[in-house]
Specification:
The chain has 419 residues and is an alpha+beta fold. It has 3 domains: 282 residues, no CATH class; 74 residues, no CATH class; 62 residues, no CATH class. It contains 12 helices and 11 strands.
Protein backbone atom coordinates (compact mmCIF):
# COMPACT_ATOMS: atom_id res chain seq x y z
CA UNK A 1 0.00 0.00 0.00
CA UNK A 2 1.37 3.40 -0.94
CA UNK A 3 2.21 5.91 1.75
CA UNK A 4 -0.18 8.76 2.53
CA UNK A 5 0.86 12.06 1.01
CA UNK A 6 0.75 15.28 3.03
CA UNK A 7 -2.77 16.21 1.88
CA UNK A 8 -4.09 12.77 2.85
CA UNK A 9 -2.46 12.95 6.27
CA UNK A 10 -3.92 16.40 6.83
CA UNK A 11 -7.37 15.18 5.85
CA UNK A 12 -7.10 12.16 8.17
CA UNK A 13 -5.96 14.47 10.96
CA UNK A 14 -9.04 16.65 10.45
CA UNK A 15 -11.26 13.56 10.54
CA UNK A 16 -9.64 12.43 13.78
CA UNK A 17 -9.90 15.87 15.44
CA UNK A 18 -13.51 16.22 14.36
CA UNK A 19 -12.90 19.73 13.00
CA UNK A 20 -15.95 21.50 11.68
CA UNK A 21 -15.18 24.30 9.25
CA UNK A 22 -11.55 24.46 10.33
CA UNK A 23 -12.43 25.10 14.00
CA UNK A 24 -10.90 22.86 16.60
CA UNK A 25 -12.94 21.79 19.61
CA UNK A 26 -11.91 23.14 23.02
CA UNK A 27 -10.73 20.60 25.60
CA UNK A 28 -12.59 20.35 28.91
CA UNK A 29 -11.11 19.58 32.31
CA UNK A 30 -12.01 16.23 33.83
CA UNK A 31 -14.10 16.34 37.03
CA UNK A 32 -13.80 14.02 40.05
CA UNK A 33 -16.03 13.32 43.07
CA UNK A 34 -13.42 14.19 45.67
CA UNK A 35 -9.92 12.94 46.42
CA UNK A 36 -11.16 9.40 47.18
CA UNK A 37 -12.71 9.01 43.72
CA UNK A 38 -11.12 5.91 42.04
CA UNK A 39 -11.27 7.79 38.71
CA UNK A 40 -8.88 10.39 40.14
CA UNK A 41 -6.30 7.74 41.03
CA UNK A 42 -6.63 6.23 37.56
CA UNK A 43 -6.26 9.71 36.05
CA UNK A 44 -3.05 10.39 38.00
CA UNK A 45 -1.60 6.99 37.06
CA UNK A 46 -2.59 7.41 33.43
CA UNK A 47 -1.16 10.86 32.99
CA UNK A 48 -4.16 11.83 30.84
CA UNK A 49 -3.87 9.02 28.36
CA UNK A 50 -0.51 7.51 29.24
CA UNK A 51 0.33 3.98 30.32
CA UNK A 52 -2.05 2.72 33.01
CA UNK A 53 -1.09 0.78 36.10
CA UNK A 54 -2.19 -2.81 35.53
CA UNK A 55 -1.62 -4.03 39.07
CA UNK A 56 -4.46 -6.60 38.81
CA UNK A 57 -2.65 -8.34 35.96
CA UNK A 58 0.35 -8.96 38.21
CA UNK A 59 -1.54 -11.83 39.81
CA UNK A 60 -0.86 -15.00 37.84
CA UNK A 61 -4.44 -16.29 38.06
CA UNK A 62 -5.85 -12.98 36.79
CA UNK A 63 -3.26 -12.81 34.03
CA UNK A 64 -4.03 -16.37 32.93
CA UNK A 65 -7.81 -15.77 32.88
CA UNK A 66 -7.53 -12.50 30.97
CA UNK A 67 -4.98 -13.96 28.53
CA UNK A 68 -7.22 -16.97 27.92
CA UNK A 69 -10.34 -14.88 27.21
CA UNK A 70 -8.58 -12.17 25.17
CA UNK A 71 -6.50 -14.74 23.28
CA UNK A 72 -9.57 -16.80 22.39
CA UNK A 73 -11.39 -13.71 21.09
CA UNK A 74 -8.29 -12.61 19.21
CA UNK A 75 -7.37 -15.85 17.48
CA UNK A 76 -10.87 -16.82 16.29
CA UNK A 77 -11.69 -15.28 12.91
CA UNK A 78 -14.81 -13.15 12.44
CA UNK A 79 -16.50 -13.41 9.07
CA UNK A 80 -19.25 -11.29 7.56
CA UNK A 81 -21.92 -13.75 6.41
CA UNK A 82 -24.48 -12.94 3.73
CA UNK A 83 -27.79 -14.51 4.73
CA UNK A 84 -30.29 -16.12 2.38
CA UNK A 85 -30.63 -19.44 0.54
CA UNK A 86 -27.10 -19.07 -0.86
CA UNK A 87 -25.45 -18.39 2.48
CA UNK A 88 -21.84 -17.38 1.94
CA UNK A 89 -18.94 -15.31 3.28
CA UNK A 90 -19.17 -11.74 1.97
CA UNK A 91 -15.44 -11.43 1.38
CA UNK A 92 -15.90 -8.43 -0.95
CA UNK A 93 -17.52 -6.30 1.78
CA UNK A 94 -15.22 -3.65 3.40
CA UNK A 95 -16.36 -4.69 6.91
CA UNK A 96 -15.18 -8.25 6.25
CA UNK A 97 -11.75 -6.92 5.28
CA UNK A 98 -11.54 -4.88 8.50
CA UNK A 99 -12.44 -7.86 10.67
CA UNK A 100 -10.54 -10.58 8.84
CA UNK A 101 -7.53 -8.88 7.27
CA UNK A 102 -6.55 -5.37 8.38
CA UNK A 103 -8.38 -3.30 11.01
CA UNK A 104 -5.83 -0.48 10.78
CA UNK A 105 -2.40 0.15 9.19
CA UNK A 106 -0.32 -1.18 12.13
CA UNK A 107 -2.33 -3.97 13.81
CA UNK A 108 -3.35 -7.47 12.83
CA UNK A 109 -6.92 -8.60 13.57
CA UNK A 110 -5.64 -10.69 16.49
CA UNK A 111 -3.81 -7.73 18.04
CA UNK A 112 -6.78 -5.39 17.60
CA UNK A 113 -9.37 -7.77 19.04
CA UNK A 114 -7.09 -8.75 21.90
CA UNK A 115 -6.43 -5.12 22.84
CA UNK A 116 -10.12 -4.21 22.68
CA UNK A 117 -11.20 -7.23 24.74
CA UNK A 118 -8.50 -6.47 27.34
CA UNK A 119 -9.81 -2.89 27.67
CA UNK A 120 -13.34 -4.25 28.15
CA UNK A 121 -12.17 -6.74 30.78
CA UNK A 122 -10.30 -4.05 32.71
CA UNK A 123 -12.60 -1.04 32.39
CA UNK A 124 -15.98 -2.40 31.28
CA UNK A 125 -15.80 -0.48 27.98
CA UNK A 126 -13.60 -0.51 24.89
CA UNK A 127 -13.65 2.13 22.17
CA UNK A 128 -12.27 2.33 18.64
CA UNK A 129 -12.50 5.29 16.28
CA UNK A 130 -14.21 4.33 13.01
CA UNK A 131 -12.74 6.16 10.02
CA UNK A 132 -15.25 6.36 7.18
CA UNK A 133 -14.48 7.08 3.54
CA UNK A 134 -17.15 7.31 0.83
CA UNK A 135 -19.66 5.63 3.13
CA UNK A 136 -17.34 2.70 3.91
CA UNK A 137 -15.40 1.97 7.13
CA UNK A 138 -11.70 1.86 6.28
CA UNK A 139 -9.96 1.91 9.71
CA UNK A 140 -10.64 0.97 13.33
CA UNK A 141 -8.36 3.00 15.63
CA UNK A 142 -8.30 1.90 19.32
CA UNK A 143 -8.84 4.74 21.81
CA UNK A 144 -7.82 5.09 25.44
CA UNK A 145 -10.88 4.03 27.45
CA UNK A 146 -10.15 6.43 30.32
CA UNK A 147 -10.01 9.36 27.90
CA UNK A 148 -13.53 8.74 26.54
CA UNK A 149 -16.76 9.96 28.13
CA UNK A 150 -19.87 8.28 26.73
CA UNK A 151 -23.27 9.99 26.90
CA UNK A 152 -26.76 9.34 25.59
CA UNK A 153 -27.99 12.29 23.51
CA UNK A 154 -31.45 13.78 23.28
CA UNK A 155 -32.01 11.94 19.99
CA UNK A 156 -31.47 8.56 21.72
CA UNK A 157 -28.07 8.16 20.07
CA UNK A 158 -24.70 7.90 21.74
CA UNK A 159 -22.25 10.81 21.88
CA UNK A 160 -18.58 10.22 22.72
CA UNK A 161 -16.24 12.92 24.01
CA UNK A 162 -12.62 11.90 23.52
CA UNK A 163 -10.13 13.95 25.53
CA UNK A 164 -6.88 14.05 23.57
CA UNK A 165 -3.94 15.70 25.29
CA UNK A 166 -2.64 17.06 21.97
CA UNK A 167 -5.89 17.91 20.20
CA UNK A 168 -8.26 18.73 23.04
CA UNK A 169 -11.77 17.34 23.23
CA UNK A 170 -13.13 15.59 20.17
CA UNK A 171 -16.88 15.05 19.95
CA UNK A 172 -17.77 11.90 18.01
CA UNK A 173 -21.15 10.62 16.89
CA UNK A 174 -22.42 7.08 17.48
CA UNK A 175 -21.48 5.82 14.02
CA UNK A 176 -17.92 7.11 14.48
CA UNK A 177 -17.11 4.91 17.51
CA UNK A 178 -17.04 1.14 17.77
CA UNK A 179 -18.09 0.52 21.37
CA UNK A 180 -17.78 -2.77 23.25
CA UNK A 181 -19.85 -2.60 26.44
CA UNK A 182 -19.78 -5.10 29.32
CA UNK A 183 -22.46 -5.53 32.00
CA UNK A 184 -24.24 -2.20 32.30
CA UNK A 185 -26.64 -0.60 34.76
CA UNK A 186 -27.66 2.38 32.62
CA UNK A 187 -27.09 0.87 29.15
CA UNK A 188 -24.58 3.64 28.35
CA UNK A 189 -21.34 2.51 29.97
CA UNK A 190 -20.23 -0.90 31.19
CA UNK A 191 -19.15 -2.10 34.60
CA UNK A 192 -15.58 -3.19 35.20
CA UNK A 193 -15.72 -6.69 36.64
CA UNK A 194 -12.11 -6.41 37.75
CA UNK A 195 -12.91 -3.25 39.75
CA UNK A 196 -16.01 -4.84 41.27
CA UNK A 197 -13.84 -7.78 42.38
CA UNK A 198 -10.99 -5.49 43.50
CA UNK A 199 -10.88 -6.90 47.04
CA UNK A 200 -10.67 -10.52 45.88
CA UNK A 201 -7.88 -9.66 43.44
CA UNK A 202 -5.99 -7.65 46.06
CA UNK A 203 -6.32 -10.55 48.50
CA UNK A 204 -4.81 -12.87 45.88
CA UNK A 205 -1.98 -10.38 45.36
CA UNK A 206 -1.42 -10.18 49.13
CA UNK A 207 -1.21 -13.98 49.28
CA UNK A 208 1.47 -13.89 46.58
CA UNK A 209 3.38 -11.16 48.42
CA UNK A 210 3.21 -13.21 51.63
CA UNK A 211 4.68 -16.21 49.82
CA UNK A 212 7.39 -13.99 48.36
CA UNK A 213 8.28 -12.65 51.82
CA UNK A 214 8.62 -16.21 53.14
CA UNK A 215 11.29 -16.93 50.53
CA UNK A 216 12.99 -13.57 51.05
CA UNK A 217 13.08 -13.41 54.85
CA UNK A 218 11.88 -16.77 56.15
CA UNK A 219 14.03 -19.60 57.41
CA UNK A 220 14.21 -22.02 54.47
CA UNK A 221 16.70 -24.47 56.04
CA UNK A 222 15.82 -28.13 55.64
CA UNK A 223 16.98 -29.14 59.13
CA UNK A 224 19.62 -28.75 61.84
CA UNK A 225 22.64 -30.69 63.14
CA UNK A 226 22.50 -31.00 66.92
CA UNK A 227 25.67 -31.59 68.97
CA UNK A 228 25.94 -32.02 72.78
CA UNK A 229 28.88 -29.62 73.16
CA UNK A 230 30.26 -26.70 71.22
CA UNK A 231 32.38 -27.60 68.18
CA UNK A 232 35.88 -26.35 67.69
CA UNK A 233 36.51 -24.07 64.74
CA UNK A 234 38.31 -26.88 62.91
CA UNK A 235 35.49 -29.41 63.50
CA UNK A 236 32.84 -26.85 62.49
CA UNK A 237 34.72 -25.95 59.28
CA UNK A 238 35.15 -29.64 58.39
CA UNK A 239 31.44 -30.39 58.96
CA UNK A 240 30.34 -27.26 57.04
CA UNK A 241 32.56 -28.16 54.07
CA UNK A 242 31.27 -31.76 54.11
CA UNK A 243 27.63 -30.58 54.00
CA UNK A 244 28.30 -28.07 51.19
CA UNK A 245 30.32 -30.41 48.99
CA UNK A 246 29.90 -34.11 49.74
CA UNK A 247 26.15 -34.00 50.47
CA UNK A 248 24.97 -31.16 48.24
CA UNK A 249 23.45 -31.48 44.76
CA UNK A 250 21.50 -34.15 42.92
CA UNK A 251 24.34 -36.66 42.99
CA UNK A 252 24.15 -36.83 46.80
CA UNK A 253 20.45 -37.75 46.89
CA UNK A 254 19.73 -40.56 49.40
CA UNK A 255 23.39 -40.64 50.42
CA UNK A 256 24.12 -41.47 54.07
CA UNK A 257 25.92 -38.88 56.18
CA UNK A 258 28.67 -39.53 58.75
CA UNK A 259 28.19 -37.40 61.86
CA UNK A 260 30.96 -36.78 64.40
CA UNK A 261 31.03 -35.61 68.00
CA UNK A 262 27.74 -37.45 68.86
CA UNK A 263 25.89 -35.15 66.46
CA UNK A 264 22.21 -35.80 65.54
CA UNK A 265 20.35 -34.70 62.38
CA UNK A 266 16.93 -33.09 62.95
CA UNK A 267 14.77 -32.49 59.87
CA UNK A 268 12.36 -29.53 59.86
CA UNK A 269 8.75 -30.46 59.04
CA UNK A 270 6.08 -28.26 57.47
CA UNK A 271 3.90 -26.42 59.98
CA UNK A 272 0.12 -26.09 60.04
CA UNK A 273 0.54 -22.38 59.28
CA UNK A 274 2.37 -23.15 56.03
CA UNK A 275 -0.36 -25.64 55.03
CA UNK A 276 -3.00 -22.98 55.75
CA UNK A 277 -1.09 -20.49 53.60
CA UNK A 278 -1.12 -22.88 50.62
CA UNK A 279 -4.83 -23.50 51.12
CA UNK A 280 -5.52 -19.74 51.17
CA UNK A 281 -3.65 -19.24 47.91
CA UNK A 282 -5.62 -22.03 46.24
CA UNK A 283 -8.87 -20.49 47.51
CA UNK A 284 -7.96 -17.13 45.95
CA UNK A 285 -7.24 -18.83 42.62
CA UNK A 286 -10.76 -20.25 42.82
CA UNK A 287 -12.18 -16.76 43.48
CA UNK A 288 -10.39 -15.33 40.44
CA UNK A 289 -11.55 -18.24 38.28
CA UNK A 290 -15.13 -17.62 39.46
CA UNK A 291 -14.84 -13.94 38.52
CA UNK A 292 -13.89 -14.65 34.92
CA UNK A 293 -15.89 -17.87 34.48
CA UNK A 294 -12.80 -19.96 33.73
CA UNK A 295 -12.71 -23.60 34.97
CA UNK A 296 -9.86 -24.14 37.44
CA UNK A 297 -8.15 -26.88 35.36
CA UNK A 298 -7.69 -24.31 32.56
CA UNK A 299 -5.60 -22.39 35.10
CA UNK A 300 -3.45 -25.53 35.37
CA UNK A 301 -4.91 -26.51 38.74
CA UNK A 302 -4.89 -30.27 39.35
CA UNK A 303 -8.64 -30.63 39.84
CA UNK A 304 -9.16 -33.36 37.26
CA UNK A 305 -7.14 -35.64 35.05
CA UNK A 306 -6.29 -34.68 31.50
CA UNK A 307 -8.66 -36.53 29.18
CA UNK A 308 -12.37 -36.54 28.51
CA UNK A 309 -12.97 -34.41 31.62
CA UNK A 310 -10.78 -31.61 30.28
CA UNK A 311 -12.57 -31.80 26.91
CA UNK A 312 -15.94 -31.31 28.60
CA UNK A 313 -14.59 -28.41 30.65
CA UNK A 314 -13.34 -26.83 27.42
CA UNK A 315 -16.84 -27.09 25.94
CA UNK A 316 -18.25 -25.67 29.20
CA UNK A 317 -15.84 -22.71 28.93
CA UNK A 318 -16.96 -22.00 25.36
CA UNK A 319 -20.69 -22.32 26.05
CA UNK A 320 -20.99 -20.49 29.36
CA UNK A 321 -18.13 -17.97 29.19
CA UNK A 322 -16.92 -17.28 25.66
CA UNK A 323 -20.26 -17.29 23.80
CA UNK A 324 -21.28 -14.17 25.71
CA UNK A 325 -18.13 -12.36 24.58
CA UNK A 326 -18.54 -13.61 21.00
CA UNK A 327 -22.16 -12.42 20.86
CA UNK A 328 -21.14 -9.06 22.33
CA UNK A 329 -18.61 -8.57 19.53
CA UNK A 330 -20.97 -9.74 16.77
CA UNK A 331 -23.81 -7.45 17.76
CA UNK A 332 -21.53 -4.44 18.36
CA UNK A 333 -20.10 -4.91 14.86
CA UNK A 334 -23.55 -5.03 13.29
CA UNK A 335 -24.72 -1.98 15.28
CA UNK A 336 -21.81 0.26 14.26
CA UNK A 337 -20.23 -0.96 11.03
CA UNK A 338 -23.30 -2.03 9.03
CA UNK A 339 -25.75 0.38 7.44
CA UNK A 340 -29.42 0.13 8.38
CA UNK A 341 -30.38 -1.47 5.06
CA UNK A 342 -27.61 -4.09 5.45
CA UNK A 343 -28.78 -5.52 8.78
CA UNK A 344 -31.22 -7.98 7.20
CA UNK A 345 -28.68 -9.10 4.63
CA UNK A 346 -25.42 -9.47 6.58
CA UNK A 347 -24.37 -10.74 10.00
CA UNK A 348 -20.99 -10.95 11.75
CA UNK A 349 -20.11 -14.43 12.97
CA UNK A 350 -17.23 -15.97 14.94
CA UNK A 351 -16.02 -19.32 13.64
CA UNK A 352 -16.53 -21.18 16.94
CA UNK A 353 -16.25 -24.55 15.14
CA UNK A 354 -12.50 -23.99 14.98
CA UNK A 355 -12.37 -24.61 18.76
CA UNK A 356 -14.83 -27.51 18.78
CA UNK A 357 -13.49 -29.74 16.05
CA UNK A 358 -12.37 -32.45 18.44
CA UNK A 359 -10.10 -35.32 17.43
CA UNK A 360 -9.76 -36.64 13.88
CA UNK A 361 -11.91 -39.63 14.83
CA UNK A 362 -14.68 -37.34 16.14
CA UNK A 363 -14.52 -35.27 12.96
CA UNK A 364 -14.67 -38.38 10.76
CA UNK A 365 -17.77 -39.66 12.59
CA UNK A 366 -19.51 -36.29 12.36
CA UNK A 367 -18.76 -35.73 8.67
CA UNK A 368 -19.77 -39.30 7.79
CA UNK A 369 -23.20 -38.65 9.29
CA UNK A 370 -23.33 -35.19 7.69
CA UNK A 371 -22.84 -36.85 4.28
CA UNK A 372 -25.63 -39.38 4.95
CA UNK A 373 -23.82 -42.42 6.34
CA UNK A 374 -25.95 -44.98 8.18
CA UNK A 375 -29.10 -44.03 6.35
CA UNK A 376 -29.38 -40.54 7.94
CA UNK A 377 -30.56 -37.60 5.86
CA UNK A 378 -27.43 -35.68 4.72
CA UNK A 379 -27.05 -32.03 5.63
CA UNK A 380 -23.64 -31.36 4.04
CA UNK A 381 -22.32 -31.74 0.52
CA UNK A 382 -18.83 -33.07 -0.04
CA UNK A 383 -17.47 -29.66 -0.98
CA UNK A 384 -18.97 -28.12 2.14
CA UNK A 385 -17.13 -30.71 4.23
CA UNK A 386 -13.92 -30.02 2.33
CA UNK A 387 -14.35 -26.30 2.98
CA UNK A 388 -14.77 -26.90 6.73
CA UNK A 389 -11.49 -28.82 6.67
CA UNK A 390 -9.76 -26.10 4.59
CA UNK A 391 -9.40 -28.47 1.61
CA UNK A 392 -9.69 -27.18 -1.96
CA UNK A 393 -13.03 -27.60 -3.70
CA UNK A 394 -13.49 -30.75 -5.78
CA UNK A 395 -14.76 -30.47 -9.37
CA UNK A 396 -16.08 -34.04 -9.53
CA UNK A 397 -19.76 -34.50 -10.49
CA UNK A 398 -22.21 -34.42 -7.57
CA UNK A 399 -19.84 -32.91 -5.00
CA UNK A 400 -22.07 -29.84 -4.62
CA UNK A 401 -25.27 -31.84 -4.13
CA UNK A 402 -26.75 -33.61 -1.12
CA UNK A 403 -26.38 -37.34 -1.78
CA UNK A 404 -27.63 -40.37 0.11
CA UNK A 405 -24.88 -43.03 0.38
CA UNK A 406 -27.58 -45.72 0.61
CA UNK A 407 -28.50 -45.16 -3.02
CA UNK A 408 -25.27 -43.98 -4.62
CA UNK A 409 -22.88 -46.19 -6.58
CA UNK A 410 -19.24 -46.47 -5.60
CA UNK A 411 -17.50 -44.38 -2.98
CA UNK A 412 -18.09 -40.62 -2.60
CA UNK A 413 -15.93 -38.27 -4.67
CA UNK A 414 -14.89 -41.04 -7.10
CA UNK A 415 -15.30 -40.50 -10.86
CA UNK A 416 -17.83 -42.82 -12.55
CA UNK A 417 -16.44 -46.07 -13.92
CA UNK A 418 -15.53 -45.88 -17.62
CA UNK A 419 -17.20 -48.35 -19.97
Amino acid sequence: MSRFNENSMAALDRIWRGDRGGKSVRAESREFNGTDDPAMLEFIRAGQGGAHDSFQLRNMAVLRCVSLICGTVGMLPISLIEAGPDKRVASEHPVHRLLKRKPNPWQTPLEFKRQMELAKQRHGDAYARVVWSAGRPIHLIPMDTLAVRAELGDDWKMVYRYNSKKRGEVVLKQEEVFHLRDLSIDGVTGLSRMKLADRAIRLALDAERAASRIFETGNMAGGAIEVPTALSDQAYARMRESLDTDYAGVAAAQRWMLLEENAKANKFGSTAQEAQHVENRNAQVGEVARLFGVPRPLLFMDDTSWGSGIEQLGIFFLQYTMLEHFTNWEQAIERTLLQEHELERYQAKFNVRALMRGTLKDQADFFAKALGAGGTSPWHTQNEVRDLLDYPESDQPGTNELRNPMTQKGKPDEPPESA
